[in-house]
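We were asked to recover a plausible sequence for a given structure. The inputs and outputs are reproduced exactly as logged, with field labels preserved.

PROBLEM: sequence recovery
POSITIONS: 143
GIVEN STRUCTURE:
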């Protein structure tokens, strides 16, 4: 039976893993982080429309975000963890300088609020659920 201190260390390690992935993928445009932090069999339970619910789908999403918002940054506001799951509330911000989902660059600054739940296995993302405010941001960019 695992000691509670071992479980606490595992929870903290999971939170650090999620923070490291956010920094690498969002803030440093490091698409190699997808292979490093996401398990090959990852299941994305809330993929962006038109993308597969896999690690490759998330790779396509991050590439599209970086093209549209080359100055993309993420700010973590809250992070809560229990067992093998980590919940993160964050805001991603950037300047719309490239095409996104058929919308040409507008030069506008945007902020997308995100809440993610990640289940980790052996230090890698195994499952992802998320909600975000991308739809209203897209509507704003179209207007």
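RECOVERED SEQUENCE:
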């Amino acid at each position: 039976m695992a000691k509670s201190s071992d479980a606490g260390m595992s929870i903290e390690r999971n939170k650090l893993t999620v923070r490291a992935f956010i920094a690498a993928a969002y803030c440093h445009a490091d698409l190699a982080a997808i292979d490093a932090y996401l398990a090959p069999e990852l299941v994305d339970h809330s993929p962006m429309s038109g993308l597969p619910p896999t690690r490759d789908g998330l790779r396509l999403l991050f590439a599209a975000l970086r093209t549209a918002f080359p100055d993309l940054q993420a700010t973590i506001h809250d992070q809560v963890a229990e067992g093998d799951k980590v919940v993160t509330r964050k805001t991603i911000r950037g300047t719309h300088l490239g095409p996104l989902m058929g919308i040409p660059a507008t030069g506008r600054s945007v902020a997308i609020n995100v809440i993610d739940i990640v289940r980790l296995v052996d230090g890698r993302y195994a499952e992802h659920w998320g909600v975000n405010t991308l739809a209203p941001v897209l509507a704003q960019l179209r207007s």
